């Protein structure tokens, strides 16, 4: 780091030959290698070669995001009758926890082994008032790679004062390989009957709209392209998919990750399945990428990556009808998202 702090890189490997490289900077998943018989492994996530590149980029490649993934309108938060002004870092809004969010922090790391599976724990103390959020927050994220090729990401937190908490991981997947061009002809499924439409600045209008008859109907496996080429105004706003879909299987009482989404590449026959305890999933197609210089001299263009960001709905603190991201003082937060790779 510029101040001399050392960043560590961990490699999680299983007996199936899957391996992941994870940085203590932002818990960034830098490489995710899937073996192929007789061919070099396919790296299914976008990333950079240097720490400097991660620090100077604002696309959250592979990183842990918090305290609040996605947007809070005008950075305005009201909790227990007190108003808080959060850091504004995108237009008029607070995006992904403010300009110094979890992705920019060096996390304290511990090597673990969970049920024989390789795992690491990353811990962070976020002080009271960090990016404007109330309450000193202690958070821990555990990454575990299982023998069934699942990366399990568990999020834990407690806060000294009532706050909001909505962490995610912002990996950009490309199941044909990070340097293979656009994801347009890959297929996705999202088990979501509703989505939360937004205004032109990606702030939810507050409605839940049926996906039926819209480009957001991914209940059956369909190409990403059919959505990206749609003339629907919601697609035009952001040059692609950048929307929260409401996961049908969400159960606020359950701590068991439920199937939510899938992506698949016919080029490599690699598929990804997403399971989560969270109510929403931001489906984002790297709409603003424009010759971004990525790993090993690759150039990342618009629609070259696909994010499945599991989350509370965007701006939920200002939308009382959305599932609540409030974390009460002293309460324990737990969520889990699992990414399973099939090949
Ligand atoms: C996603 C999107 C945003 C943004 C960011 C980098 O979560 O919702 O629009 O560009 O990632």
What does this structure look like?
There is one protein chain. The strands form eight sheets. A nine-stranded antiparallel beta sheet has the order 10-11-12-13-28-22-21-16-19. It has a five-stranded antiparallel beta sheet with strand order 18-17-20-23-26, with no helix packed on it. A four-stranded antiparallel beta sheet has the order 1-2-3-4, with no helix packed on it. The chain has helices at residues 51-56, 224-228, 233-238, and strands at 9-13, 19-23, 29-36, 39-43, 64-65, 71-72, 76-79, 82-85, 94-95, 108-114, 117-126, 137-145, 150-159, 163-164, 168-169, 187-190, 192-196, 209-210, 222-223, 242-247, 258-264, 271-276, 280-284, 292-293, 299-300, 307-311, 326-327, 333-342. It is mostly beta strands and 343 residues long. The radius of gyration is 19 Å and the shape is globular. The chain contains three helices and 28 strands. 5% of the residues lie in helices and 39% in strands. The longest helix is centred in the first third of the chain and has 6 residues, at 51-56. The structure holds alpha-L-fucopyranose (FUC). The site of alpha-L-fucopyranose has 9 residues, from β23.
